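Render this sequence as a predicted structure.
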Amino acid sequence: MRDSGTRSPQQARLSSRRAGRDAASGPGDPGPPMPDELSPRHVGRRLLEFALVGVVIGLLVLLGPGLGSLRQRVSHASPGWLAVGMALEVLSALSYVVIFRAVFCRRMGWRLSYQIGMAEQGANSVLSVSGAGGLALGAWALRRGGMGTEHVARRSVAFFFLTSLANVETLVVFALLYLMGILHHDRDPALTYAFAAAGALATAIVVLGLPRLRPLPAAGGPDASRIARGLRFIRNSLGQGVRDGLLMLRQRPIAILAGSVGVMAFDLAVLGVCFKAFGYSPAVGVLVLGYLIGQLGGNIPIPGGIAGLDAGLIGVFALYHAPLAATTAAVLVYHAISLWVPGLLGTVAFLQLRRTLQREKQPAAMCMPLAEPIQTVPLPAGTGAGST
């Protein structure tokens, strides 16, 4: 046996680190508290706001003057096409789970990946600002599951980058198709090329600029201001997250592309079949550009993007000269499907996730990279393997 009565300073430091980690993740540690945005009180208030806005929109459609054509179209919608739309939305939600697992942890079980990924989409249905509610829920669940804060932050940046990249690059590709004459009759070239140029510029800035941000070492220790530590954390997360995203895009392109393109393409197809349900089919270029540009209206901080997303989509399709009554009916039904399908699936997944986190200790801990390399400590001279 090796003598454990005396330890070198290096051994003492290593033991202290291990003890600190063990204490932080011991059996009695409940993990980080649920963010206030995800508390039952906050979500309940959001659901109430969501319901009130939905009621107002419903009453406006049913009773508003000058909307007879819209009411007639809604009443004559094809149930078969609407059923196809709901099935396509399920596929979009499952694609989100695929890219979630590919980005955050390929070693994570599919059950836990489904619960977190689907619960995120349920949160996005009732919380505001472009998926921020879903990201907050996912970060909380992963931290409760044993994943480190910095790892969650950089992978969240990678996830947002990869899912946004599919939308932006599709917008640029379709603008180029119009520019090269492969697609014809662009009803609003200024709108098409302005947004495509903005998307290409933003992509270039992110891809070429952010990976150059090298991680900054901790400065000032515990005495550094909270603002300085926060800015360092954000800077490091952005740079490392975009680098992670680009690396994953090269190393595991099938899962990344299947997930990111699937989320967008199946959701876009929902809008397409909703148009079909009301007897109108826009040209493919108009459908894609109207969808991608109009989605920016969902950034308005309203629960579920209600009114903001609808106004954005209807307004953009109007600029592309789509008929107003058919567009309004298709967009309203599309938005209802894109909210309620992931909302219902996400609510069930969230209840399952809470039970998983209560039953299992740190189910996501296997996703953590090694915090530090294994170090060897030389034994004092004259100490052999058989010494006691």
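Summary. The mean pLDDT is 78. Residues 324-359 form the longest helix (36 residues).
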